Amino acid sequence: MRKVLTLCLSLLFLAGCSAVWAKNPVFLVGCSAVWAKNPDAAQVGEALCRLYVQGDSDTAQTLKDWDTETISLSLRDDLYQQICLNLSELSGGPVDDTLLEQVAEANLEARCRIPVEVELLDGDKERAELKFTVGVLDISGIDEKAARSALASIEQNGEISEDTMAELINNYAQALISGFAAADPSADQNVFQFTFIKKDGAWLPEDLNCFIEKLGQSIRK
Predict the structure, then answer these.
(1) Torsion angles phi and psi, residue 212, rounded to 5
(2) Other CB atoms within 10 A of residue 82 CB
(3) Which of 47, 126, 139, 176 is the most buried (most CB within 10 A)?
(4) Predicted local confidence at residue 67, as pLDDT
(5) Low-confidence ranges of the chain (pLDDT < 70)
(6) Under DSSP, is residue 45 helix (H, G, I), strand (E, B) or coil?
(7) Contact (CB, 8 A) for 179 and 117
């Protein structure tokens, strides 16, 4: 029972994070930087990474004509809703809204610490090959540790029952919050390359959906 429940907790949270990436194959923006009026391919690439990774829309001028504020809010809302769905399904009932918000915010704060570097490898006026180096957030490890901690906190009561499920969910959420707070996304890095093209005077990924998928895979173990 203990092993099975640990896997359920872990897989549910990972599924939620994956759903957030998959649901928003749209444009994003960077994090608290000042860009030129006509950003180059590397600047646009970094802005895209930082919006999807961090949900930040402070540099909307980098991605002209993209509704970055709406996208940022949508990403945050989707993350909250997915966490709410997963924990509610697991508990068999509603979960405290404040606790859900704390888990979502802890996740976002951890992602804001993920470093992003973009380097132009080759290119011309219409095409650019970019190298992306991004930090890694060990969501799987954080989740598994939180699940095991939550189970250990109530295992003295024997089999998990309806009475202990609420306590289990609360302990699990608190352990997730602590895990995200302690995470060091700069400890490991992943590298990938992607082609950007210039279309209607603006740089964008050659295949936006593929770029977002690669980014989502790169920032987590």
Answers:
(1) -65, -40
(2) 20
(3) 47
(4) 67
(5) 1-38, 56-67, 156-163
(6) helix
(7) no
Neighbours of 116 (CB within 10 A): 22
Geometric angle at alpha carbon 19, from 66 and 3, rounded to 5°: 155
**Alpha-carbon 140 to chain mean position:** 12
Q: Is 47 exposed, middle or buried (0-12, 13-18, 19+ CB in 10 A)?
A: buried
Contacts of 25 (CB under 8 A, 6+ apart): 208, 209, 212
Single-letter residue type at 61: Q
Q: Where are the domains of the chain?
A: 2-113+139-183
Q: What is the pLDDT of residue 216?
A: 86
Q: What is the pLDDT of residue 152?
A: 84
Residue identified by tokens 């804001």 is 112
Residue type at 150 in one-letter notation: A
**Can you tell me the distance from the alpha carbon of 152 to that of 139, in angstroms, rounded to the nearest whole number?**
20
Distances (CA, A) of 6 to 13, 14, 134, 172: 11, 12, 29, 10
Integer-rounded Cα Rg, in Å, for the chain is 19
Q: What is the DSSP letter of 220?
A: B
